[in-house]
Specification:
The chain contains 14 helices and 20 strands. By secondary structure, the chain is α/β, with parallel strands linked by helices.
Length: 401
């Protein structure tokens, strides 16, 4: 990994008897039971290699995490206690935690060597990257380790601010994420196929432009389809489109034309009169020339069977695949079929396959399809910004080798 990763990691420093401020991504979903329980502990488990390494080196851990979006206020439903309890079970097969305090910070004692601070986003100073708050947080420890890939695209106190007051290095998960994505972007086995879903062209424009330069084929689905079709003059009925992104869509289409048509739009679509399970559903072909795809109240909600077959053919040839964003309105089962078929095709392909982005990761988890992929990124926005070529403030703040 050292050939790609430019920053110091936990392997590069002495950790014996050190207090480590460890930024983790424990932003996990909770079951609305009483009391609440963690419904998916994958993110906690992903940080365990770093946690185990630090403990083996004789460090005491003060873990920092957030849960949800409390916007600087204490919200009872977003307290870290259920997360602390699941964390305790993973570490020592018990769920007993003690509420305590570290400096001015409420915390949960997991073991004598492991603590978890209360939701760091309860403090408005966190998202403001307040210097005084960062210094107070840093005063709890001797060393800072960032292992929360899902937050490194944010310049917050617990990702950037504390690095001004402590030696700051990467954890093993953060290193793995950066190396995996870097290798895919720099030296992918070819053919390299990217699958791009999502709704808004404006939020995906950076990643689409970069992928066009990198991949052999870029397969487009979901709400992006509506805007791209509209930009070409098609009538897409009641489909959601991004009117303000028409110029962007036109520019992307023109760029794709100059690159041997390596961006492939659907050839047929699933349309319905409502995004519901009991909706009236039709399969429509895309006219060769701009015309009517569907008329209101019908709207585009998934890729069609011919498109699934076309995408499967490209994926079958692939040696590398990157997927961001569902290809349909996956919240409703009838419109999740396209995404499921493509996930299964990627699994069959044997390609090195990487998934990034919160919506598609959640979809794969829901249907148990994540096991089909080589790497499922723990970072939603962070993975997309990295692939788009943007700098990640939380990574750039770490010590270089």
């Amino acid at each position: 990994m050292n050939d790609i990763f430019k920053w110091k990691t936990v392997r590069d420093i002495d950790l014996a008897k050190k207090k480590v401020l460890l930024r983790v991504d424990f932003n996990v979903p909770l079951e609305p039971t009483e009391p609440p329980t963690v419904s998916d502990d994958a993110r906690i488990k992903e940080s365990m290699p770093t946690i185990e390494y630090l403990l083996e080196q004789g460090a005491t851990l003060i873990c920092v995490a957030h849960l949800g979006r409390p916007k600087g206020k204490v919200i009872e439903a977003l307290k870290m206690k259920p997360v602390a309890e699941r964390f305790a079970e993973i570490i020592s097969e018990r769920a007993y935690v003690t509420e305590t305090k570290l400096g001015d910070f409420p915390a949960y004692k997991i073991t004598d060597k492991v603590f978890l601070l209360e939701n760091i986003r309860f403090y408005p100073e966190e998202e403001k990257n307040d210097a005084k708050f960062s210094k107070k947080l840093a005063a709890l420890a001797d060393v800072y380790v960032d292992d929360a890939f899902g937050t490194v695209h944010r310049a917050h106190a617990s990702t950037v601010g504390v690095t001004k007051f402590l030696p700051a290095v990467s954890g093993l998960l953060l290193e793995k994420e950066i190396v995996t994505l870097s290798r895919l972007m720099v030296e992918p086995a070819r053919p390299f196929v990217a699958v791009q879903g999502g709704i808004k062209v404006s939020t995906k424009i950076g990643i689409i432009r970069r992928l066009l330069d990198l991949v052999d084929y870029l397969l487009i689905g979901s709400g992006l389809t509506s805007t791209f079709l509209k930009a070409q003059g098609y009538d897409v009925g009641a489909s959601k489109i991004e009117e303000e992104a028409m110029d962007m869509a036109t520019q992307v289409l023109e760029k794709a034309r100059t690159m041997s048509q390596n961006m492939i739009l659907p050839v047929d679509l699933i349309v319905a009169d409502a995004p519901t399970e009991d909706a009236k559903i039709k399969v429509v072909d895309i006219p060769a020339e701009p015309g009517v795809v569907c008329e209101a109240p019908f709207m585009i909600l998934d890729i069609g069977p011919k498109t699934v077959k076309l995408f499967e053919e490209k994926i079958k040839e692939a040696k590398s695949v990157f997927w961001n964003g569902p290809l349909g309105f996956n919240e409703v089962k009838p419109f999740a079929k396209g995404s499921k078929a493509i996930a299964e095709a990627i699994g069959r392909s044997g390609a090195v396959s990487v998934v990034g982005g919160g919506d598609i990761v959640a979809f794969l988890d829901e249907y148990g399809l994540n096991v089909l992929f080589t790497h499922v990124s723990t970072g939603g926005g962070a993975s997309l910004e990295f692939v788009a070529g943007d700098k990640l403030p939380g990574v750039e703040a770490l010590q270089k080798k």
